[in-house]
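REQUEST FORM: STRUCTURE PREDICTION
Request ID: SP-0412
Submitted by: Lab K.M.
Chain count: 1
Length (residues): 452
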Amino acid sequence: MTHRPYVAGVDTSTQSCKVVIYDPVTKSVVRQGKAPHPEGSEVDPEKWWDAFLCAVDEAGGLHDVAALSVGGQQHGMVLLNEKGEVIRPALLWNDTRSASCARDLIRERGSDGRDDAGSEGASWWAEATGSVPVASLTVTKLRWIADKEPENLEKIAAICLPHDYLTWKIMGSPSLESLVTDRSDASGTGYMARETPQYRRDILASSLRIDEGAAERIILPRIAEPWEMLGYGDPERGWGEILIGPGAGDNAAAAVGVELEPGSALLSLGTSGVVCAVSTTPVADPFGLVTGFSDAAGHWLPLACTLNASRIIDAMRKVTGLSYTEFDEAALSVSDAGGLVLVPYFEGERTPNLPEAKAELRGMTLANCDREHVARATVEGLLTLMRFALDAMRAQGVPIHRILIVGGGAKSRAVQALAAQFLDATVEFPQAGEYVALGAAKQAARVLAEAQ
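STATUS: Completed
RESULT:
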């Protein structure tokens, strides 16, 4: 047997596929590759497979890889027929056509006729699955299929998620019964139980408007145990000696990548802001500010997402005409915003749930109407919004004492200087990296170690 010292981690995200080859001994990335995915919110899953193969080639192949795991975008709906063929393009998390279906699903579970946060229906969903339906969740997309494409509903033999599909392909697509997922990704479907990694077939049935007997006949990926070895790669591609791990949803994989532990949170400042924290107990937020996902290691990963994050700085930087460096310097040149307040809802907002909200600059006076105070108010507005998301997690009983901040917004010197003050926690800024792929690689390393 050829000596295979390395492991591989894959990030099949919305935009691209990234493959990192990782040395678990030196704890370093030795090489990596990347290939783009098609744009849009509706994608042929075969394009993910094509991108994976290209990314593997760019990363120098898998000839010295002993184990592999896949992290991926959550919620995407992949429908397969009895032959294992894709029925229609996958609807991704960012496809919003099922927004009205989410409201219907909430209304159907309550007697008060309401579909808003805090309603009877929302409370039912939070207790049952940990999440209140929104357009991103798979369960709402299934309802959309039932209502809008009944001809495709009749063809469904199996339902899986992007990371499940790619893992299955890497293993050679042996059979529909061999589809496997993990608890973190399954928890984002809207039809996995909140407290245990088990599917709620009754929810699946009602979302598809079919009886539970028919729902039982639909194949859902088996939910693997944390660190479980699923099998091996496709021998026809020369991957027959590569152990395959269960993989994870992207946020859960990133949590593994930064080695997140209970009491700590990961704050990603990208276009949007995502806060997730490892919890030893499940959460149920009927107001939908916090979604009660599972993590990849046997705990839970409550998560709050804002629509606005680094775009807040981008927008106000254009207003001031400053470069990123100049904007940071301006924000740090004054001790506070001088009473100027930026309400940062440039794209509406999800946490808090104010989809129609607009951004505002308030409290302007002759004394604070300058680029320095505007820059300072911008950074303070960004951090205050993130504090709201963190406090929503804390209100669910999730302790957060340490925050690791990553993403493009974390590069801001002003954010770095002010974060601890505004977020009420010890703050760290890990070195930039592909944390989803890295987390998948670290999972593969543990799967390998436990299999030996």
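NOTES: The chain is about 35% helix and 20% strand.
Reviewed by: T.R.
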